[in-house]
Task: structure prediction
Amino acid sequence: MQKIKLLLVDDEKDFLTVYARRFVRRNADITLASSGQEAIDKIQTIEFDVVILDVMMPEMNGIETLRRIKAIKPNLPVIILTGHANSQTMIEGMDIGAFDFLLKPVGTDELYFRVLDAVRSRHRAQM
Amino acid sequence: MQTIFKTLFNCIRKSSAGHDEDRERFLAKTENFRLLLAANNKALEIMAQITEEAQSESVFSMAHVRAQSLKVASSVRQMIERLCLMAPGKYGELRDVFNTIVLSMEKAMDEGTKRDIGPLVLPMEDVRADSLPLTGSKMAMLGEVRAALGVEVPRGFSITASSYHLFMEQSGLGDEINRLIQIHDSETLDGLRLLEESIRHAIDMTVIPQDIEQLVTRNCRKFGNVSMAVRSSAVGEDSEDASFAGQFVSKLGVKAGDVLEAYRRVLASAYSATAMAYRLNRGLRDDAVVMCVACMEMVDAKAGGVIYTQSPMGHDDGRVVVNAVPGLPRTVVDGCSLVDSWVVERTSLAIRSKDIAAKEVCYVKTSCGRINKEKLYGDRSVAPSVSDSVVQRLVRLALRIESHFGTPQDIEWALARDGRIVILQCRPLSVRVPHEDILPHAHNDEDAASILLHSCVAASPGVAAGRVALVASDEDMSQFPENGVLLARSARPQLSVLMSQVCGLVTEYGSPVGHLANVAREFGKPYLIAGSGAVEQLSGVGMVTVNADTGNIYLGFRQTQIDGSATSTLPGPSNEVRLALQRMIPYIVPLSLTDPESPEFLPEYCTSLHDITRFCHEKAVNEMFMGGEQLTANARKLVGKMPMQYWLIDIGGGTAESCDNTRVCLDDIRSNTMKALWRGMTAIPWDGPPPVAPGGLMSVFSEAACNPALAPGMANSMGDRNYFTVGRHYCNLQSRFGFHFCTIEGFAGDDPAENYALFQFKGGGADMGRRSSRAHMIGDILEQHGFIVEVRDDALFARIEGVEKEAVEQALVVAGYLLVHTRQVDMIAANPDSLSQYGQKFTADIGALLSGLAGESQDWRCGA
Result:
């Protein structure tokens, strides 16, 4: 039985802990990264199905992280999940190729379904 | 999950040669179409919410407005991306159109929040009324009366709006605060308290920019070793219709070295739970807060107080009210003690009445500059705080200030030990306007026998009835009942956080000129100060009627008192949050792109997000069903006895290999999921449309006439064909049944982790209320069969995941049945009894269908 391999990127430890717990219950294989650089390091060594990415992070912000992820793995779906309610950020993220842009707080079901959509979309796109 | 796609992928690879690429592209297109429809539903749903919110009286924050705008925009952008994936290279220009609309929308939303640039710190001697955008109202008014009237005000300086912006921006603090507001629950008191704590922590962790630090330190040095008052002077505070009375912090007795820390505290108070609740309920924008801070030399006050140059209850009887306490005026405004009061004739300055209270405490400045709270006993307690002649001097001064500004004033003052009168604050007085045709106190009091308390002091007029709820702790505040009568010992300003929940207020202590009274008047809530013992008398009595027009409190609900109320509510400030939402609407909601046949049905003619959704939807349907390209070349017509036309695309293993290239019989189907779905759709024949009352039919006609999505052009554009896409364990149905559009999809293989069923459903011919009722009824039935269901308006999303294949097959039987049998049920959905009867019939039918499945489903999986 294969699990969804999910990378959660957020500098807020509480957020990572809460969502990791919720996704593990849904049979996902969770990897955590607390910075953009850590996320980039991880995607180079692990094959993920989806990345969930925060925007406001110190040093490398989410948009720059997304840009670098897309340069390395163009087909890896990235869902931006942020409390930073800013149109410019949304436009930038979608222009770079984010799969979706969601605002915190988001219900676990809604986020999980978007993750499933992203996984399906990716695999079908590759067919 | 990956395995599903590998399985499908392998199925496709193994399928008959020649059309593999088309099939792969079709499958990807189907998925993008499904995602586009989901985004379309979400976008339209948020547009409906926004339209309703813009017209409603409901309370919401600017964070909510921003979130709504972003949710609708990201859904629309999602549609564009899906359309671009369905038809690469054809619709890329939509992105530019979208970006232009969204940026214009954001600009419209923030219109009027312009920023004034100026010095970081401004000395009092340079402050005038027109400094308000830079120094905030409190400081600007003091600067004005000092310069224009020569009135004595404390020496000091303003830490200006420019400092605030620098502090917020230099380290990203402003963004962080907006983020915290976005992610926290601001609808409950507990949520607001948590948010307050998080913001305070963020402010504490942020370094004050060096430029501000140096300027504040340099200005403090000018005053030597005196203690300072560091007070809020926010832009928009102290206005006539939004006083913010008591919402922000003032730090008194601050040493020069501690001014920056006090500055931080005052800034943080802009985000106290009470201040945020106040803004939320007054429709003021959190993101428009600009906290300027007034740093002023402390006055060594012998006495202090507040003057109202007119009655705030609305009856201009030519009298001025002076309230006073010994020491600093703090106890007047924070309601923790009784106060002395004088009523003075404004023309003759004759004292009409005076009430010298037994004051319990006072605040005094010590020799080292700190502030001490002192108990008052004996003669000190009952001695007048000031002499009558001082009262007359105060009134004379107050009337000069009123005359200068041209409006009734609420003035805070201090009498220095050397006899000088120093003005600490002046602001426009909020005045309630009485109804002209009803005179207060004119009631025939037939309820006299039920009076619990009488002769209470009215702090805010009006009459209200509700259950008494004592508030003695934070927990009491969290549990305060909706429309209760708030009962408390003292008039703490923090109680104002409950103002939207209370119907009336009663406190033992307090003053009509206190902060709580100010806020009660702004919210139009009757408020009585009932004196010592009221808490004991009223606790636990249940329902009372508070009549602040007569000063009486009655046991029970007294209609005659409410009918006789003489007071209208104070007009609220313009709701800035709702206005911001309304300014956005032209960029979101209007639909001008209605005719797909028009030469202007092009991206460049999209002027709203709704136009883009309409365009994307139309083009997606064309790409999906009307493309005429190779994608549907694989489609074969399903033949058999059936009322509608169905076409089928086999992505591998879904049909018997023997069948021909143009037609496929039901017996040739090998897909277990399609068989299950088909079973649900056909096992019980549809009885036809429900008998419709004229109202139901009219609703359909009028909806068809008014809703562009149901216009003939639209209906045709959906295509006449209903497509099944099938694999051995997979089935997807894209279908339009009557006026509603539906997607059903399922995968049922051996590994439960990969299995799922989806059911998306939206639309109908009747009005939204009936369509929504039908969607809820369908949702209830689906939930009974293990689906996770979300219904918003008439859109239904249901999923079941990670279950055995038998469960998916059953789910598809249920979905298939509901797809066919709920047709046109929206027409009778206005009648709850009829709807309920249909619900019962559907439940019974489904029960019968599922109970007969056991043997049949084995056959589905074994193949024919």
User: Anything to note?
Assistant: The two ends of chain B are 28 Å apart (CA to CA).
